[in-house]
Amino acid sequence: MNGQPSVLEVKGLTTQFSNRKNRSVTVVDGVDFHVKKGETLGIVGESGCGKSVTSLSIMRLLGKNGKVTSGSVRFEGQETLTLTEQEMRKLRGNRLAMIFQEPMTSLNPVLTIGRQIGEVLQLHTSLGQEERKRRVIELLTLVGIPRAADVYREHPHRLSGGMRQRVMIAMAMACQPQLLIADEPTTALDVTIQAQMLGLIRDMRDNTGMAVMLITHDLGVVAEMCDRVLVMYAGQVIESADVRTLLRNPKHPYTMGLIRSVPHQAKGVKWLYAIPGNVPSPGEWPQGCRFAARCSEAMPICQEQCPSLMKMEDGSECRCWLHVPGTEGGERP
């Protein structure tokens, strides 16, 4: 995996939204990461940490109130932030695809399933009408939808949540993308359907060599699917590591709290652990470490200065004063 080229390189990504008072509020703050060909990068964190906005920034789907104010997003070596909207449309759904959180709001309720997937093929390929229809039915079959020829003519409201999510996967995979961004692809699905959806994404990754950027709050999904993991908190990356290192030896107190919060069947445990407090809202981020108010390890410097993302000896990165030489708790040189 290390020898593979990067499909996506994100550097210094900063995204802002205008609020009702027309003030600009930073939601994603200086995020750096890359995704290599054939690997799955997990992005985890609580709601409000900036995970979904990061993905929408990459796709240039922020809407009229949001914009990327600085940074670089290079897809297959090409800077996408400077592309025109017409050039971005040629990229989206073709080499760069996304599965959104809620398929019912992502699918057009008045168009048939066949029409919606067919439009992707019509936009990005030279297939004729009959060829497109055959390809759509083939895609629906590939993602495990029974009676694919019948579903081709159905409208989204006639399908279950799991079936609609399969349609979204089929749509995303229609043009065999180089990078698939999956934003909480198993939200609100039961455990059996969830496993099937993740299996579909994994099989397609293995068969086509595409890269996957998986946004989730579920560390069980991360353990099963991902090669590397970014942990985000209040718009920043606070830890990154390969999946085994992160789950076995987390460095940041927030990551430790996330792992500790995972339900398990240990005898004698009556209450689930929860990290105290809430993620601070954009525009209300503290001056120092953004996790300090919720951290049991916080020191005076944590309230005053925000630490940088530092490289650890095992190759992971962590944004925490506990690991800075010369500070209380940090390793001394």
Automatic annotation (TrEMBL):
GO terms for biological process: peptide transport. Keywords: ATP-binding, Cell membrane, Membrane, Nucleotide-binding, Transport. Belongs to the ABC transporter superfamily. InterPro entries: AAA+_ATPase, ABC_Ni/Peptide_Import, ABC_transporter-like_ATP-bd, ABC_transporter-like_CS, Oligopep_ABC_C, P-loop_NTPase. It is found in: Cell membrane. Pfam families: ABC_tran (PF00005), oligo_HPY (PF08352). Gene3D superfamilies: P-loop containing nucleotide triphosphate hydrolases. It is a peripheral membrane protein. The keyword Nucleotide-binding applies. GO terms for molecular function: ATP binding; ATP hydrolysis activity. This is ABC transporter ATP-binding protein. It comes from Brevibacillus invocatus. SMART domains: AAA. SUPFAM superfamilies: P-loop containing nucleoside triphosphate hydrolases. Residues 8-259 form the ABC transporter domain.
